[in-house]
């Protein structure tokens, strides 16, 4: 059952063969509410990896999940090293050493496997009284259908996945969604948490709420601050002044070299003028300090 680690970690581009679930359709109406969701951007496989290092080897726990459709077996992976066809959530454990991975465990956590092993998804808002458009609003999604029989088990045990989708308006809908977080896998129930902007609902007939800007002090990623506009104008005016003045001196006076600089004498004297100004300011400050002793010399 050995496979290369590179193949074990390559779980991309897997689309299901069945139709997407209703709750993943654009404009899905949330039961018992006046809100709708668009989870269609989450209709693709996501990989979750948790590694436990114990030199010279490592245990890698990997979850391949698509809440909307069934996942497919990655190319180069044998049937015995992956979940059954129809899996929505596939859990695998690898023993990794020297860039090679042995598949130790494969669990069909959730999916439509035919017969009585149905997905039976249950999607709902955790609190229908809350504002489902705001950050922190949560939805519960339960996926069933999985079974697992260990070496010491007498019969298969039902498995399921419990996801909490949480609205996060700080994310951008223009960015690719990040995978959920594996919270735990205990007592045959896999718990996951998914903070995503796609879990932010919209009221009926309205567009989804806009994402919060990354910097609260700016209204968007584009545009320029007032200070930036000021310095831009200054640089443009200086450019026009020097280029236009040099062109004028060249055409009218046939000037060359430093003589091209408009008002050349002023610019050559400017460093000395600044030096004299600084010296004058320092002398003024020092004279005030010397004169504040509280008595008058006679």
Describe the structure.
The protein is an alpha+beta fold and 298 residues long. It has three helices and 13 strands. It has helices at residues 5-9, 226-253, 264-290; strands at 2-4, 28-29, 35-37, 46-54, 57-65, 87-97, 100-111, 122-125, 138-148, 157-167, 181-186, 189-196, 202-203. The protein has a five-stranded antiparallel beta sheet with strand order 1-7-6-5-4. Strands 8-9-10-12-11 form a five-stranded mixed beta sheet, with no helix packed on it. A three-stranded antiparallel beta sheet has the order 2-3-13, with no helix packed on it.
Strand adjacency order, main sheet: 1-7-6-5-4
- Number of H/I helices: 3
Main pleated-sheet profile:
5 strands, antiparallel
- Give start-end ranges of low-pLDDT stretches: 1-18, 216-222
Shape: elongated
Rg result: 34 Å
* Percent in strands: 25-35%
- Helix proportion of residues, in percent? 10-25%
Mean pLDDT level: 85
Global structural class: alpha+beta
Distance linking N and C termini: 104 Å
The helix/strand order is: EHEEEEEEEEEEEEHH
Subunit organisation of the chains: single chain
Number of strands: 13
Transmembrane segments: 227-248
Subcellular location: Preautophagosomal structure membrane
Keywords: Membrane, Protein transport, Signal, Transmembrane, Transmembrane helix, Transport
GO biological process, one term: protein transport
Write the layout of secondary structure elements.
Blueprint: E1 2-4, H1 5-9, E2 28-29, E3 35-37, E4 46-54, E5 57-65, E6 87-97, E7 100-111, E8 122-125, E9 138-148, E10 157-167, E11 181-186, E12 189-196, E13 202-203, H2 226-253, H3 264-290
